[in-house]
Amino acid sequence: MKKGNHAELAKEFISDEARTDWHDETLWWIRQKRDKAAHNLPEWEQLRQWASEIKDHTLSNLQHYLLEFEQNAMANGVYVHWAVDGDDHNRIIKSIADKHGVKNIVKSKSMLTEECHLNEFLEAANIEVIDTDLGERIVQLRHEPPSHIVLPAIHLKKQDVSETFHSHLGTERGNNDPVYLAASARTHLRRKFLEAGLAITGVNFAIAETGGIVVCTNEGNADMGAHAAPVHIACMGIEKIIPKAAHLAVFTRLLARSATGQAITAYTSHFHKPRPGREMHIVIVDNGRSRQLGRKDFRNSLKCIRCAACFNTCPVYRRSGGHSYHTAVAGPIGSILNPNLDMKANADLPFASTLCGSCSNVCPVKINIHEQLWKWRQVIVAGGYAAKQKKAGMKLMEFILSRPRIYRFAGAAARWTLRNVGFLAKSKKMNPWYKQRELPEAPRNSFREWYLKNRKK
Amino acid sequence: MNAREKILAAVAANQPESKLLPLIDLRGFRSEVEDLSDQFGTALETCGGRLQHISSIA
């Protein structure tokens, strides 16, 4: 993960203007696909309401459903493990790998394992972990984190992928044909699938009623891994629980449409128990989620089904790229989840938003994301985690805005400065705010002066 | 206290007051599709494709 705050890392991303434009347009295209898919379902808003209410109910009875899920999963012959934090989670997975003498693991997409830094942990123990989602494999070969939770390599162009594959997989230099590149990845990954002694998957939904889990992918890589390897470990946060299998009818209708505009993911795989002679494990992870559950203003964020619709619509995400968020889960939802994990390290994220509310409007489970961003800002400032310049600036604004005479004087002084020594305000060194903006011409009078002069006419 | 007990205790301490589970009934939303080719075209366009009608295969 890159070091720096959101503004510093975004500066690096937007230095390539053409790429920034392309990234912006690509994600907006996906947002438009989502809109079409949503509009094709007359019941869309009812589904969102139901999804939100099911999650509300589940979170308010979470202990009960976790126990029900555990009991049913164990009755199915699944080993259930509990992990308080990321370190716990990583140790459990390593202990299972060690027990089976496994040195080669394949892993389908799991943002939880990214959050826990599992790959780095296992690689340090000389265990190879291969990400099998194509986008994730591309960024893994480049030693980068995913920049998007659904489209991990969306920040890259096919030329970048071609160069990466040439360096690591020995493909033909300069061959940018996506079909050729995908076929090369397929050949490379097929060997890894066959060598693996253990497969790790994420969990989209864990059904309390049956003890089964559901994994949604478009590439079938979760299925390939879990079916080929003798041991399957599924890693899930405590918030992935839903009460009944019938509730999947609501969530699967919402998930893929919100994520990519598809009616459904190409694979919606149900895993209930190990095949004869094989092992299946489920690791249930807290890692701060129970703390978030106790935060009244923020518990709603635990409803997230990781569709990334809020990423694709966010004007800040689209133009700053996922790596600028320096966390496993980026975008608007990441900006309300990550301060709970580490408020100091992620104090910049709730400020990386225009608070336009588009994220809340597209959220399939009706999370009030933009309101939580605003509330996190207050918590962060009250906790003393905001940048000193920001705090000083806000104090100054408070002083000016609460004193009408000083406000009028400051307005007049600013207009005079812009008219007469505008170069000061337009100096990128003196005024970093101006770097990405154009200042309008300053009017001679304020609106108040204009109104007082003209209201009698 | 092991990890399981810690997590379950933290969840029990922090979960809000119980809310009702909604009754889900999707049967009322089943649409009657008149023309399957229209439905196919709509679905194709939704996922980025374009349907071309041709008069013959020549």
Layout of secondary structure:
The complex is a heterodimer of chains A (457) and B (58).
Chain A: H1 6-14, H2 17-39, H3 44-60, H4 62-75, E1 79-83, H5 86-99, E2 104-107, H6 111-115, H7 118-124, E3 128-131, H8 134-141, H9 158-169, H10 178-195, E4 198-201, E5 205-207, E6 212-217, H11 221-228, E7 231-237, E8 241-242, H12 248-259, E9 267-271, E10 279-285, H13 289-293, H14 309-313, H15 315-320, H16 331-341, H17 358-362, H18 369-382, H19 388-401, H20 404-420, H21 422-425, H22 447-454
Parallel strand pairs in A: 1-10, 2-3, 2-4, 4-7, 5-8, 7-10
Antiparallel strand pairs in A: 5-6, 6-9
Helix pairs in contact in A: 2-12, 3-12, 9-10, 16-18
Chain B: H1 3-14, H2 36-46
What structural class do the secondary elements of chain B suggest? mainly alpha
The most extensive interface, with participating residues per chain, is:
A-B, 42 and 29 residues
Per the principal axes of the C-alpha atoms, what is the gross shape of chain A?
Answer: globular
Q: Give the assembly state of these chains.
A: heterodimer
Total strands of chain B: the figure is 0
Low-confidence stretches of chain B: none
Q: How many beta strands in the DSSP annotation of chain A?
A: 10
As a percent range, the share of strand residues of chain A is: 5-15%
User: Which percent range fits the helix content of chain B?
Assistant: 25-40%
